[in-house]
Amino acid sequence: MYQRVVDASCAEFAERLAAKLSVPGGGSAAAYVGALSSALCSMTAVFTVGKPRYAEHERDLERILGEAEGVRLRLLELVDADASALEPLTRAYALPRTDPARAATLERATKDACAAPMEAMELVARTIDLVDEAQRKCSRLLVSDAGVAALLARAALEAASLNVFVNTANLADRAWAEATEARCDELLATYVPRAEAVEARVMEKIRGAE
């Protein structure tokens, strides 16, 4: 019986990833890294709200905080959703090739396995939007945290895409696969450069202060 990853400690999660277990795997790790990115985005806002120097951004930062928290909580749910989707896929691959239901079962399970990493990509893209805004409005003492959030978001986005592509490559329904891949490509093309730009601006602020 699968035990929820989000109920484990960080050390236990890492131990499970390192173990000879089918779950959790890369998709769960990607979602978790995305959740860490959203958490850091929240951190930049929560420590800035209430500071008179940044009063003009108070409402925006409160909005960023609320949205980032919602994204973080959903990404944590996807850590387990990805792991749960992998079990039916593993069972489908284990069916005898002579089983007439194998192809349809495998196709359905493969499509289902795409759901969590696809949603994770959408949520991480939203995190990058929020971090981009946060690094311009948060306290200068927190810009490095915004930079780390951007870097983690980029990693999570690309990592989640790998977990989509590895499944769409095996689908017989090429129209569905290509539409899914096109959305992945769109998110990558838009948000990887945006995350890199946030990191570059943060680095400029930090190194420029020397």
UniProtKB/TrEMBL annotation:
It comes from Olsenella absiana. This is Cyclodeaminase/cyclohydrolase family protein. Residues 9-185 form the Cyclodeaminase/cyclohydrolase domain. SUPFAM superfamilies: Methenyltetrahydrofolate cyclohydrolase-like (SSF101262). It comes from the Bacteria. The lineage of its organism: Bacteria, Bacillati, Actinomycetota, Coriobacteriia, Coriobacteriales.
